[in-house]
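Q: I'm writing up a methods section and want to include an example of the input and output format. Could you take the sequence below and give the corresponding predicted structure tokens, formatted cleanly so I can copy it straight into the document?
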Amino acid sequence: MKRHLGNKGEQVAHKFLEENGYTILHKNWRYTHKEIDIIAQQEEILAFIEVKTRRNQANLAPHELFTKAKQRHYIECAYAYGALFDMMEYSFRFDILCIHATRGGMNIEHWRDVIDVRDIMDCRHTYWK
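A: Here is the clean output for your methods example:
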């Protein structure tokens, strides 16, 4: 049941992003033992997106959904992705799409740019724009 809800949430997320001008580049992209839910492009921005699907309407802040360890994981994967696909000239952004499942359907909250990379990692590199 939980997996079904998560799959439905990801379908809703894909549709939402496409309707809002994003091009989905990868879904459930794996790097070593880590995974990013969605990698999407919007103009010159690569968005690395965590999708959280919930049944309740609890108003959790992004940092409550995206632990420091998970943030570090996303940053490492983003760097690997940019290098692997020769996309280091793009700006990287980290988002959360929170899908709230209700009896009336799915409500979506899109939190953009939720990670300040310099707070998480030792980042002296030009790829963090």
